[in-house]
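Sequence in, structure out. First:
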Amino acid sequence: MKGFLEETLELIVQKHDSLSNHIFILPSKRAGTFLKNLIAQKTTQTSFAPEILSTESFIEKISGLSYASNLEQLFELYNTYLQSKPQEVETFYSFSKWGQTLLQDFNEIDRYLIETKDLFSNLSAIQEITHWSPDAPKTQMMDDYLKFWNNLDAIYQTFKNSLLKNNKGHQGLVYRTATEKLTEYLKTKQNNIFVFLGFNALNTSESKIIQYILEYHNSDIYWDMDSYFMQDSIHDASLFLRSHKKDWNYFKTNNFKGVSNYYNTPKKIEIIGAPKNISQAKYVGNLLRHIKIESPDSIKNTAVILADETLLNPIINSIPKEIDAINITMGYALEKTTLASFFNSFFELYLGNNSKGWFYSNLLSFISHPTTTTLINEKEEDCCSKISTTIKTKNWSYISTSKIKALAPDNVILSELFVDESYTPITFIEKCLHIISELKNIYTSQSNSLALEYLYRFNSLFNQLNTLIQEYNYVNDLKSLLSLYNELLSSETLDFKGDPIEGLQIMGMLESRNLDFETVIITSVNEGILPSGKSNNSFIPFDLKINHGLPTYKEKDAVYTYHFYRLLQRAKNIYLIYNTEPDVLEGGEKSRLITQLLTDENKTKDIKEKVATPIIIPNVKDLEIIEKDSALLELIKEHATKGFSPTSLSNYIRNPIDFYKRNLLKIEDVLAVEETVAANTFGTIVHDTLEDLYTPFIGKLLDAEALKTSKKQISTLVKKHFARTYSEGDITQGKNLLAFNVIIRYIERFVDLEIMQLKQNSIKIIGLEQQLRVKLHFPELDFPVTLKGKLDRIDEENGSLRIIDYKTGRVEGKNVTIKNWEEVTTEYSFSKAFQLLCYSIMYNANNPISELQAGILTFKNLNAGLLKFAYQEGKRKSANDSIINQEILTLFTKELKSLVLEICNPNSPFIEKDV
């Protein structure tokens, strides 16, 4: 298959003996690389190479200007904005949000050579009509707003002049200047032949320049279009070319060259739907593998076109290992490197710093970053891990610089990273450059060439920022600096090394201009991506654009339609992949271009449709089974000897695997900072405060007046236990302050209820937070079994013995009432009843009883009173149901024995429960 460039080059070579005096102008640099390679192949004798330019480079040469970077334009525009003396001056950070849109409008206005005075006058009138009632009196804000729009032409002129003064311009200004200097430029090129290849949509500047050269200079132009579309008077693929052929004077006397007849040749077209982006990438990888296996040489003439360039990473990771040569035109985004996330984390660290210190989440995120650990641990191994563990253990929400330095007093890098001084943008950039210098030394010693390449690019980036900030002193804070940094970073890429001609080609839609491949794979053929659809990133309304001849989304859609069909013209194997699960981020429904293709009667015979779905292997979760080997049996024996607690046995009832991991292997939850008081910490503080509050009453009858007096200590005691249990956590604000007051309120209400009960009952405190242990004798086991636990409170109410367990979570009466003894050791919902019975056995072993009552006081429902354990034999409840006597304890001991023997049975594995 001969592509457009090869065919056109052969025609040119037939007409001219030498190409050394030719100047080829193409839409992109990429096409120029391919053309240069083709010229080398076709040339049979030594000669000077012709000049090959992209459109932008060609226009730049004519204008004599250089392109200003986006940031330079933004700074210059802000400078112009300040000169217009607005009543309320916006900060550079705020201005940059809408300044970009204004820059785009200025750029478009100049590229299309629009008379600015009329346009801005119309725009100002529209703003006034749209926003304000003519009869209503205008406020100062309204006047300022309208003044800005009235001054827009003056802002534009001042901005343009300031750029020209520096011999620079935005793209539109360079194009406008080129049209003015064209004749002057052509005088220097009298002996050259201009050849324009593969153009389509042209702005007014480009159109005027090309038409002038064609009419008044030795030149030629070749279009890349199929006759199938040229003959269709309504097809968007040929919209611009039909217009050029009709409107240009040149074509009244000259042929319209470059029209081919390939589109209607037989093709293999597959339209594939795949769910989400990753599935598209995986499908492409699988497709490439099949192509490589079936026809190894065809990969050299295969292109993967990414309509959505964010698919680059997934596509790269999906390329099969069988393909050894790849060329990627787009480059790897610098913002996706680990070094980019490091500097973002460093910015966030300092932006989050305040008078209280460094916020823990920003700090932990920063010191856990691989680049930070490389920096800090170079001098002191595990320094970062030590800092992280200390912060989590001591529960620091905000950490002062002195605390950080105290953890590693000899680590110089750590001291340099964390300082209390307020950074200006310039000093912060200097700090970043210093970090880069330190990293350079480390990576050089490690011979890490890839990391050094990243560092070089970031060094250039920060130096560029430094130059801009010193030239324009508008960036006065780190927030604005971060915005600029992100703006600059988003446009930076790392180029992939390789032969640009050989191997599989991966490129964006615009890079494919003028290039032809036998096999074309296009991804993300969805509405909102291909074509991109409506986008209103402009201050100029749709109607005003049409009136002044500016392009709208309709023209933009026609451009993408041309690129799409141009790729299909000469291709023999075409795979169009779209996302079947449309959403806001990943495009809309299947593209109209696919629908258009499906309705083309001349192509339906070539098309095959299918929906690709990944092979789904059901992830059936097998319940974990852990056999008891000798080591595990030894752990069980050790645990049984030290003592089963009611909580550990409840863990087993809930899920034996939880018991195995938490109680036998001692695997605790991941250590983390309690930014807000956790539930277990909350409960501990309540328990400890009540113990201190009631300790003076042990062995005594409670007295209402004494309790009223003790209420005054509650706040002090809660503070004391917060300081002890919540380590160095802050309880002076936020949710922690609320938790502090809730605990005080809980305990005050509890004491108030006790005082009310004392009006009708006498209560004697027997014990608080008693640690009890009892040995259980089971003949079936050859080792002792201990049951241990802490009883929150033992008292007597009107002579009746009570065991009370405090709970800060919600408990209901049904959780402590059982009807079937087997359920108490098999159903976790009765874990509270199980615990109360365990406490009763332990107390009875130390202090034999005739009967007692055991219950739970839940602070979330104190009005419910004591929720007493009850064994309900019949359908009706009775007062005797809540009595725990020797018969009840015997029945429970039987169930407890069965549970313990099951745990200790070597032939009974731990089997996971589906909870």
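Second:
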Amino acid sequence: MADADSTAPARDFRDTVFLPDTPFPMRGGLPQKEPQILEAWGDLYSDLRRRRQAEGAPLYVLHDGPPYANGDIHIGHALNKTLKDFVVRSRFLLGYDVDYVPGWDCHGLPIEWKIEEKFRAQGKRKDEVSKAAFRAACREYAAGWIDVQRDQFKRLGVIGDWDNRYATMDFATEAAIVREFHRFKSSGQLYRGSKPVMWSPVERTALAEAEIEYHEHVSPTIWVKFPVTGATDDHPDDLLAFRHATPSVVIWTTTPWTIPANRAISYGPEIAYGLYEVQAMEQGLDFEPWAKPGDRLIVADKLAEEVFKAAKIATWTRVSDLNPSGLECAHPLAALHPGFGFAVPLLAGDHVTDDAGTGFVHTAPGHGADDYEVWKAHGHHEVPDTVDPDGAYYPHVPLFAGLKVLETEGKKTGKFADANPAVVQKLIEAGTLLARGRLEHSYPHSWRSKAPVIFRNTPQWFIRMDKPLGGDDGETLRELALKAIDQTAFHPAGGRNRIRSMVETRPDWLISRQRAWGTPLAMFVDKHTGQPLNDPEVDARILKAIEAGGADAWFETPDADFLGVHDPAQYEKVEDILDVWFDSGCTHAFTLEGRAGSRWPADLYLEGSDQHRGWFQSNLLEGCGTRGRAPYEAVLTHGFTLDENGEKMSKSKGNTTDPATVIKESGADILRLWVALVDYAEDQRIGKQILQTTVDAYRKLRNTVRYLLGALNGFDHAERLTDLDQFPPLERYILHRLWELDGQVRRAYETYRFQDVVRPVLEFCAGDLSALYFDIRKDSLYCDRPDSLRRRACRTVMDEVFTRLTAWLAPLTPFTMEEAWTTRFPEAGSNCARVIPDTPAAWENPAEAARWATIDGVLEVVNEALEAARRDKRIGGALDAWPTVTLPADALAAFEGLDAAEVFRTSGAELVAGDAIAVEVAVADHPKCARSWRRVPDVGADPDYPELSARDADAVRYLEGRG
């Protein structure tokens, strides 16, 4: 409305204007309001399930990937659990009965470390605490954090079956995990193998690929000479002649500490090798190089120059071609100790390339997967053990007994220890070091301890990936898993290729760990055959004991109590624990399968994209290995949360965003709206500036809902218009937009595209509603008499808008929508219990959509002209104007049946035909209505109300009962 005239009217008509009125506040006050709503909801999830089940709703199952029960939740947890809550609430909204049981992963190293720290603070070493006491402390610690995290997730508004949550440390759960392990044992997929595995000396346990991350790391590099001691007859007769220096095969490695474990040298059958003789060394060096003129070296031709450069060799000659097949070398430390006096054969290997190094690969079968495979492929069976669980050389290792590869304690934990320099020094003494250097490269680290890992030969338990199941003609676990991947829906679709490539190339599944806190590989092994005992009665007794007393029962119960008729002296009790990925890979078996109100397989698994190699894959392998298929129909992945600059969050950098702080300062709905607005499939960013943008978006939503509540004050069924023909064109357009959005919202929720719910709805609120509909209809809503068709149509449409907005946004901003719904309908129950209301097909109206798209273009030009007139002070506001608008024929046709002044929000308007849109703003020279402030010719036409227009006089007369 424009400012009032300077001459005050004889009467104040403000009390006759229907201004919006609602107790719904402009400021959300979410930090105070949300806990009250949570309390009012009570066990909302159970209430919703009972309601949907009574309605015979179809079942939808979301299986929860368990967070680790250690520490407060961080922003990644908040994103993950909020996305899951979007799924749960949106499926309820779509009319489903939703099964969602939150769970926790409780076993593993992080908790063990915390408990070790606790005991160290008490002056106790781990080996001074009984296993039972240690495990009890771990269990108590995890239970405490489950309680903390559950409350934090609830405060986010996450609903689920919290009272029946699962935890991998529950006794019944540990028994179920052992039962799944026994299924692999009994099917013949389990075996014990002595092979190199990734080993963390800091954690003293084997690690699976899923527990590894790669970081830049600086390693020492060495070029080492292996003197040739023998050759087959097809080599030149003078290769080992006394008149020449003994030739040496040269290897290059970044792990000097593995040289004592060397047993062979691998070469590439397709690589060209040559025998080279050193002619001269570089001059002017400040050290004496280890090569000298006359030395004969065997390297790949492609890499010869690079090798000689590293060794400071200035000139050389290529003596001849050389085929490494049939050569035999001495160990480079043989001259220092008879323990290295064995022959070192050369073995052909497909893994050898001439891209870097020397074209030869130092082969230590106890410390590398390729080394192990090529050693075995050539008929060798004995794999040397050189390094113990602490990463130190065993006492039987000559020259180096007791030296450590990595520091495992103190401030230098994870740094290289004495082994590397000691080996290099001995090679110098032996005269077999050719050169050395340093290399920065990507190196595997434990994702928990962040310390480097090593490859170490240990006896471990594995599940075979490539053994046919159910007979020789059956499919392998790998084949079943790949087939299951192809049958699974992935959101986004690129997830399929990612997990497929991992499964195609992964090794056998390493499932044993040498730790204390976890579910045991509860089985006995025949001491003579080395095979697991498969006796259903023994397994049944094991399961019964664990179900009653947890994993402790396995460690504390005498073997004879389990073995029955079997002689305990003939069997070894396995005390390794299961990999935590096997633990969580079994969650489908005890959370979904056979539980009332659930179903196997789940409809959806939802986790971060790193779980393609973690939880998604462990569940895939467990399901395929025991049931022949994946335990899920679809997989949804989200990216990681970064700071505002796109950098990884770190407490040390001070760039973290604490969800608890956001909730305390702004409310959970702000955090939830941020999750809804981001493209979760990619890495997202968060920080103060981004959250402020989210707050601004929230205010627009809140103000829209608040305006609707105020405008609908007193609206009832009697006022509703039901005949679509009675609705003006603008109302029919808004109904069309509701029809259009209804389809978009449903499709977006069905396909988990939450951004495609909130962004179109936000645009609808800001554009179609606030900037167009509310602004145009403000005059009618405030000033028309209550029974006018236009006002009734307006309020009917606003009711439909409110009904849908509060439903559409309920999964995303549930607290605000609940507050809005219960403000208007305090006795109608929770907004969360609603389903999306049906939208009549008759609302679809492409013609009105086209009309208002055309009008929008005209409005843009008219508004610019009105703004220019305001700036020039020719008018005070739009109601002071009476524009003449020239329009082309198509634009002119769009205004047929409309009041142009109403559309332009001016007191009047003239439309004339022309070639292009043009606007001439004239001042409305009629009297101003004291009630609506419009300047129209009929002001004063009613003698009873000389200050009012005819429309306003009629409305006031109606209100005063004088009509």
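Remark: The two ends are 27 Å apart (CA to CA).
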